[in-house]
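Dear support,

We are seeing what looks like truncated structure output for some complexes. This example has four components. We would appreciate it if you could run it in full and send us the complete C-alpha cell output so we can diff it against ours.
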Amino acid sequence: MEIIRRNTEYSIRALVHLALNPGREVTAAEIAEAQEIPLVYLQKILQKLTRGGFVGAQRGAHGGFYLAKDPEDINLLEVIELMQGKLAINKCFLGKDGCNRAPKCVLKNNWLQLEQRIAGFLSQITLLDLVEQVREGGLPGGGE
Amino acid sequence: MEIIRRNTEYSIRALVHLALNPGREVTAAEIAEAQEIPLVYLQKILQKLTRGGFVGAQRGAHGGFYLAKDPEDINLLEVIELMQGKLAINKCFLGKDGCNRAPKCVLKNNWLQLEQRIAGFLSQITLLDLVEQVREGGLPGGGE
DNA sequence: TCAATGTGGACTATAATAGTCCACATAGAG
DNA sequence: CTCTATGTGGACTATTATAGTCCACATTGA
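Here is the complete output from our reference environment:
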C-alpha cells in the first residue's frame, strides 16, 4: 500500500531544486541529473507543474524553469493533488461507482476523518520547510 | 489517489457482517448477497481473512465463516495491512528501490510522521466501533 | 538561420488490482 | 457410503494505473 507515487516524489525533488536555485532559469536536464530522474519523464512532470502554476517556463536557448510562487506558498498537499489527483481514502470520495450504500455507510465517516487528518498534515508542510530541512543537512538537494 | 482498495472495503464489510451474526456459521454466499460483493471474489477475500486469523472457516454442508476474534480485538489497521500490505507512504518505506538518497532524504522524516499518524488513527478503530455505528443506523450491515 | 530549449500528444511497458475458473478437500445428511 | 453443500488453492484473464519513451513542433537567443 503506497500513498505517494514516484511521480510526486520526483515533483517535490524538482521543486526543491528550483527553490534552492532562485533567480535563474534551470533546465530540465540539470534537474534530471541532480535529482536522478529520467529526463524525458521529468519533462512531463515539469509540464504538469507548469500548468498547475507552481513553476514558470521559458523556452528557447538559455530557457528553463523557475519557481512561480514563493516556497512558503507551496504546500505538499497541493503538489500531491496536482500530481496524483484529489486525496481520497477510497472511491466513495471520488464520486465514482455511485456507491448506493453511501447514505448510510458507517465507514464513510471514519474515512472522512482520516482524510481530513492527512490533508491537514500535508497542507502544513511547505516547500520552504523542506528547503530549510535540506539546508540543515539533508538531500534532495540532490548532488548539492 | 486512493488509499483503501475495494478489496479492503469488501473485507471490512464481510467482517462487520460476521460480527452482526455471531454464534453461527455464515456462508460466503450469504455475505456476498447481503454485502453486494461478487461471490467468487469474496471467497478469495475470506480465504485471506482466514489465513490472517480474523475469521474461522468450517467446510462441508452447513459450513461457513465466523469471527475468530472478538470485535474489539480487530482494528482497521491490521485488516488493511493484511489485505493490501504494510502501510507505507512510499517505496522508501518498503525497502524497495534501495533508494540511495535515503540516508539524507528530508522527505523521509515528513513521510514517517504522516505514516505514524495514519497508523495511529486506523489502529484505534475496532470492528466493535463499526458494529456500534451500524447499530446506530448505518449500513454495512448491508441488507439488514 | 541554427541550436538549445520547452510543449503536446501518441505510444509502449510494467505492475497492481479486480475478477474468474476449475479441480479438489471436507463434512454432514440420508 | 454416497451425495451435496460448502470451503481451498492455484492458475488464469481483464482492466486500470503508473512509469516511461518517442517524435514532430514551437519558441527564443545568438
